[in-house]
């Protein structure tokens, strides 16, 4: 039923107007950066597009390439730029702090770290009041896993198939998404069935998936575990929202087995899902440890682990030290992020724009069989492409072509999921309804011309 609403003479959709002039760029061009210097970057050079894209400037939800061309950034530097690129208030906070003090390790006190820790703790429910700062999501999850193991006195960790929790050696054990999974010894990690309502074997039955966690504990461990970690909406996994009721059931099972429950809010945190601040609120649970990074610093390298005083106390007998964790500039930037999100009411904005975007995408789905699923919440949205709706055959090659077409039209989206056939739309939280309309029109234009 591929019935494009565009006639063949329809002209390409145009980006919404935006009052900003990028600075003239005179630096090295894409060819120089990506071709001549490729050997220095090695496999760390990981980019989506056939032709390299040299991004030289960012302003709010838009990016500019070397020629001054504007793009809608619908993936936000992989869900990192929460407030907007170079948001003036975050920028001011970073500049002011940089002029005063750029670094002091946590063996000294500086007010920025205290201010930020207090503000962050005020966003957490219950007794989650102790904040450890680190530099990335991987470090946050490493620390959370250490705490879980020390606190419980057990080693076994449970994570979801299709999950991504980081690329360090410990978190690679938790990660199960095959695209990212290097074969390293992972020790005492159990990967349970993914509660994916679209592709999962138990449909939307959260309680049935939770039973698999119980089975792993009963048949694969001594009956005791250290902890369980999951995102509420999987990020790299393709914006998969866990089946309803899943976390409530699993948290009960895991706690009964002596484990602690960790919510990885690296992507779903800060109100992107349209909830108050955290993705876990959408499942009505309160974790024992919450990890976060990415959006917390609007692009600055900072992450955090927030937990209860009881769990934090397991680190009291030794030194748990992180040279850059809680760096003054990152802390000042992070504090400004929280203030901007609150004052600009970004959570409600995400809910509103997200509903509009998902509605329009679902409408598109009616007309294009290749769109197998549209899912997500707020501005954490997934579009899954299939070549056969009934069989749900992943349309990986088609997704790769569409990605290039969207780039040509000025839209940058993320690609991911188990089969690299899911577009992830997770823009800066200042993304507007006009941006959403442009994105959907650009997608329809690309599909119609397929
Ligand atoms: N957890 C989740 C859910 C992530 O998406 C990521 C990164 O994409 C990480 C952890 C690791 O974060 P980082 O890349 O900052 O180490």
Describe the fold and architecture.
One of its GO terms (cellular component) is mitochondrion. It is a single chain. The protein contains 14 helices and 18 strands. With about 450 residues, it is α/β, with parallel strands linked by helices. The strands form 4 sheets. A 7-stranded mixed beta sheet has the order 4-12-11-10-7-5-6, sandwiched between helices. The structure holds pyridoxal-5'-phosphate. Pyridoxal-5'-phosphate binds next to helix 6.
Q: Radius of gyration in whole Å, from Cα?
A: 22 Å
Biggest sheet features? 7 strands, mixed
Bulk shape: globular
N→C terminal distance: 14 Å
Beta content comes to 15-25%
Low-confidence stretches: none
* Mean of residue pLDDT values: 94
* Total count of strands: 18
Main sheet: which strands, in order across?
4-12-11-10-7-5-6
By DSSP (H or I, 4+ residues per run), the number of helices equals 14
Class by alpha and beta content: alpha/beta
Binned, the helix content reads 25-40%
EC number: 2.6.1.44
Family: Belongs to the class-III pyridoxal-phosphate-dependent aminotransferase family.
Keywords: Aminotransferase, Mitochondrion, Photorespiration, Pyridoxal phosphate, Transferase, Transit peptide
Subcellular location: Mitochondrion
């Amino acid at each position: 039923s591929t019935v494009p609403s565009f006639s063949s003479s329809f002209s390409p959709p145009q980006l919404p107007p935006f009052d900003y002039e990028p600075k003239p760029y005179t630096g090295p061009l894409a060819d120089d950066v990506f071709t001549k210097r490729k050997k220095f970057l090695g496999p760390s050079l990981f980019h989506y597009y056939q032709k390299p894209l040299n991004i030289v400037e960012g302003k709010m939800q838009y990016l500019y390439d070397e020629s001054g061309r504007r793009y809608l950034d619908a993936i936000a530097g992989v869900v990192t730029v929460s407030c907007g690129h170079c948001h003036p208030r975050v920028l001011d906070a970073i500049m002011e702090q940089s002029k005063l003090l750029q670094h002091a390790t946590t063996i000294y006190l500086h007010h920025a770290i205290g201010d930020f820790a207090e503000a962050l703790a005020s966003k957490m429910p219950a007794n989650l009041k102790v904040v450890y700062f680190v530099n990335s999501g991987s470090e946050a999850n490493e620390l959370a896993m250490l705490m879980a193991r020390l606190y419980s006195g057990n080693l076994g960790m449970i994570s979801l198939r299709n999950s991504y929790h980081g690329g360090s050696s410990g978190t690679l054990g938790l990660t199960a998404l095959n695209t990212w999974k290097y074969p390293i010894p992972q020790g005492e990690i159990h990967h349970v069935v993914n509660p994916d309502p679209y592709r999962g074997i138990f449909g939307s039955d959260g309680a049935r998936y939770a039973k698999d966690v119980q089975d792993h504990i009963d048949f694969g461990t001594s009956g005791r575990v250290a902890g369980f970690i999951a995102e509420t909406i999987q990020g790299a996994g393709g914006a998969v929202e866990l089946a309803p009721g899943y976390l409530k059931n699993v948290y009960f099972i895991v706690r009964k087995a002596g484990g602690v429950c960790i919510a990885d809010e690296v992507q779903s945190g800060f109100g992107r899902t349209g909830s108050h601040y955290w993705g876990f609120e959408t499942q009505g649970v309160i974790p024992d440890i919450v990890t976060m990074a990415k959006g917390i610093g609007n692009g600055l390298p900072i992450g955090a682990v927030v937990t209860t005083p009881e769990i934090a106390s397991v680190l009291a007998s030794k030194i748990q030290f992180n040279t850059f964790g809680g760096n003054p500039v990152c802390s000042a930037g992070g504090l400004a992020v929280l203030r901007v999100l609150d004052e600009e009411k970004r959570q409600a904005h995400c809910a509103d724009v997200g509903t509009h975007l998902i509605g329009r995408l679902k409408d598109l789905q009616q007309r294009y069989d290749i769109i197998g699923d549209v899912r997500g919440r707020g501005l954490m949205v997934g579009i899954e492409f299939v070549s056969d709706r009934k069989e749900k055959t992943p349309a990986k090659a088609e997704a790769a072509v569409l990605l290039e077409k969207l780039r040509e039209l000025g839209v940058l989206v993320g690609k991911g999921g188990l089969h690299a056939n899911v577009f992830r739309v997770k823009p800066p939280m200042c993304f507007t309804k006009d941006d959403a309309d442009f994105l959907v029109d650009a997608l329809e234009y690309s599909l119609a011309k397929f």
